[in-house]
Structure formats: structure tokens, C-alpha cells
Design brief:
With 127 residues, the chain is an alpha+beta fold. The chain has one domain. 29% of the residues lie in helices and 34% in strands. It is built from two helices and nine strands; from the N terminus they run αβββββββαββ. Strand 1 and strand 2 form a beta hairpin.
């Protein structure tokens, strides 16, 4: 019987930091290309508009802070997401995990997380 060794704490921190960095960089690139805001439609038909994403680090932990619509300056973030996702479920995706297929799309993955936590609009109403 073989036992998988857990990576050292500093290796785990480095992995999470690089994931948060990659997610924040991908979303910032999409925001820049879109001219300031990105709107994604989730699998449930909800629209999520992401206005700003900032990468933050403290006490060896990295996370992203997300603002939805409205003014970003001077306000608290609407969401703080630790260990941000990068994959979304897609029947034609090229990443297979546990028998399910995913595609690499950090913007859509972040929108799914925001929508599942009440940050989406459906039919013009706040959900």
C-alpha cells in the first residue's frame, strides 16, 4: 500500500498563490479587452457582470476580491474568493476529472461561483 505524501506547507501555498495569480491575470486581461466589465452567462441562465478583480495576499494565503457592477473605488469587495476556480463543466472540454469534462475558463468559473452565492441577475432582478 502506498500513501500519497502531502506537499510541504510552502509548496501548497505556492500552488494556491500561482492559481490565484493566474485567475486574476486572466480576468484582468478579459476586463481590459472588454473595456472595463465582463458579463458572463452561467449554466443556469444567470448574468454575472464582473467589474474588477484584485489579487490579495496575507498570512501566507492568496485570494481574489471581486466587485460586481457599480463603482469600484473606495468600496469593499462584493466577494472574497480563496483558491479561485479555473475550470467550468463542459461536455466538450479537454480536461477530464472523475469522469466529468471541464474546460479552462477562469472568467466563467469565477462567474459560476459568484452566481451560486447570490451575485447574479435573472430577468432583471437581483437574486
Amino acid at each position: 500500500m502506498t500513501t500519497a505524501k502531502r506537499p510541504p506547507a510552502d509548496a501548497e501555498t505556492a500552488r494556491r498563490t500561482s492559481r490565484a495569480d493566474a485567475t486574476a491575470d486572466a480576468i484582468q486581461a478579459a476586463l481590459t479587452a472588454a473595456g472595463g466589465a465582463v458579463t458572463c452567462q452561467t449554466r443556469r441562465g444567470q448574468d454575472v457582470t464582473i467589474r474588477e478583480v484584485r489579487r490579495c495576499t496575507g498570512d501566507g494565503t492568496t485570494w481574489v476580491e471581486v466587485w460586481l457592477g457599480g463603482d469600484v473605488e473606495g468600496g469593499d469587495p462584493h466577494f472574497r474568493i480563496f483558491n479561485p476556480p479555473q475550470l467550468v463543466e463542459d461536455p466538450h472540454g479537454d480536461v477530464v476529472h472523475a469522469g466529468r469534462r471541464f474546460r479552462h475558463d477562469p472568467v466563467a468559473a469565477l462567474a459560476e461561483v459568484v452566481a451560486s452565492n447570490g451575485g447574479a441577475r435573472r430577468k432583471g432582478r437581483r437574486r
